[in-house]
């Protein structure tokens, strides 16, 4: 293979990508959250290629992307009322439901669990690809984020090519992702719905539909994508720093001849600092959209450390805080 093909997501390219999926090949494509690395979810050998390309642990489940909300019945043996209500409210969109799996769903998709993650994305390229795939007889596309396992998720086609190289043949380019962080994951495998990952749908909106907040995950909750303590992480060690001390910390490290890259939100770049400095948006939605591209750029700055200005501790920032906590957890955890 000569390398990945980044192709504009024209109707012809989408049709070709759907045929490639049906033939057992991998295709990277944009969703509103991040770019996904897709394979035919009914083909365990194709799904295994995802795990090999990402260097992903075999027991880590993947999310199946569906063309239409009505397709959930082909993958789940049960759809509780709360799950159906969330699907009506937020599909297509950045919400994943974990439901009891149908009998045909393979362990390759679920990581050996009795539950499957399902999502109907809203990105027009993803929807066109899934519909073209369905027209060829496909039922669902397994698609975790199109990056090396544990690394910063991709929000552009170039990010995918930089991470996966020859491991993926075709990358459909649909431009930068609109949401920029992964989907919210809610599990319906116990008596009460469980929030497994905050994401593109706010917790307050989930609670509004369910009539109350879902419970937090516990040891009985199913494994879910993005749930390791260290994840979404740059290769450069990254630290969260309080806004009030960020400027002083930057200058102190610079005086010790340590190369520093900075992701700031409210703190201005000190005049004496000439390293990599990224001024992030102040609003949570815009910050989330910018986050992974900023982390990748700072990771490429050849710094000894990335300092990240901490963000507000309020519900609007819940998903961003989750990603920052995992990105700065440490380099000795279970990530690639």
Can you summarize this structure?
The chain is α/β, with parallel strands linked by helices and 336 residues long. It folds into two domains: 5-216, Alpha-Beta Complex (DHBP synthase), CATH 3.90.870; 238-327, Rossmann fold. The protein has ten helices and 15 strands.
Describe the fold and architecture.
- The chain is α/β, with parallel strands linked by helices.
- The chain folds into two domains: 5-216, DHBP synthase; 238-327, 3-Layer(aba) Sandwich (Rossmann fold).
- It has helices at 11-22, 44-54, 81-90, 107-110, 124-135, 157-164, 203-210, 243-255, 284-299, 318-327, and strands at 5-8, 27-30, 35-40, 63-65, 95-100, 115-119, 141-142, 170-173, 184-187, 194-197, 215-216, 238-241, 260-264, 276-279, 305-309.
- Strands 1-8-2-3-7-4-6-5-9-10-11 form an eleven-stranded mixed β-sheet, with helices on both faces.
- Helix 1 crosses helix 5 (124-135).
- It is globular, with a radius of gyration of 20 Å.
- It starts with a strand and ends in a 9-residue tail after the last helix.
- The relative contact order is 0.16.
